[in-house]
Amino acid sequence: MTSPNSGSEHEGLVIRDNRRIDPETGEVRQGAGKAAGTPSPAASPEAAAPDDGVASQLAERTADLQRLQAEYSNYRKRVERDRVTVREQAVASVLTELLPVLDDIGRARDHGELTGGFAKVSEALESSVGKLGLSTYGAKGDLFDPTVHEALMHSYSAEVTEPTCVEILQPGYQIGDRILRPARVAVAEPQEPEAASEADGAGAAAADPEDN
């Protein structure tokens, strides 16, 4: 038996379908699952405000990353610098062992003995060491520099005004600015004042006829 009030109760009943996916179309419904009158998170000033803790952590991580990049860059530069240094040391070591051979070639050339096949081999060797950066230095008339010259002979001369290389006994060798062997030279310094005065006096006495 049906209650007389059952019809009115069913008429006042409202059924809302809050399912997120529409069962007929399979699409996501707009606003599904939100209660009526509930403000969205974007509308809340507190939700939109930035989190100071997150910003602080982000700044700290950014600083760490920059520091790591700087350390890696310095590491790469140091490795490259060490690689170049090791290469230069290896090349210098090999070329130093060849210096006596180059000296022999130079002496043979000075005496006119560098001929035939020996001349071609010598030229090839000198070309090869030149490509590796080896060069000679030292010429007659150069000012004496103790950092690049080794004085084996010493004298005084009135023809120079400062210590000068008057003879190259053995050429010097270098790679760039690195000295492999100093040039071995004979050095002449300006004549001492006393010696110059005595020489002038002796010359004047020899020229004066009254003293004879």
Question: What's this model, at a glance?
Answer:
The chain is α+β, with helices and mostly antiparallel strands. It has five helices and six strands. Among the domains are: 77 residues; 60 residues, Nucleotide Exchange Factor Grpe, Chain A, domain 2 (Roll), CATH 2.30.22.10.
What does this structure look like?
With 212 residues, this protein is of the alpha+beta class. Among the domains are: 77 residues; 60 residues, Head domain of nucleotide exchange factor GrpE (Nucleotide Exchange Factor Grpe, Chain A, domain 2), CATH 2.30.22.10. The protein has five helices and six strands. Strand 4 and strand 5 form a beta hairpin. The model has no long low-confidence stretch (mean pLDDT 80).
Give keywords.
212 residues; alpha+beta; Nucleotide Exchange Factor Grpe, Chain A, domain 2; three-stranded mixed beta sheet; 5 helices; 6 strands; elongated; GrpE_head; stress response
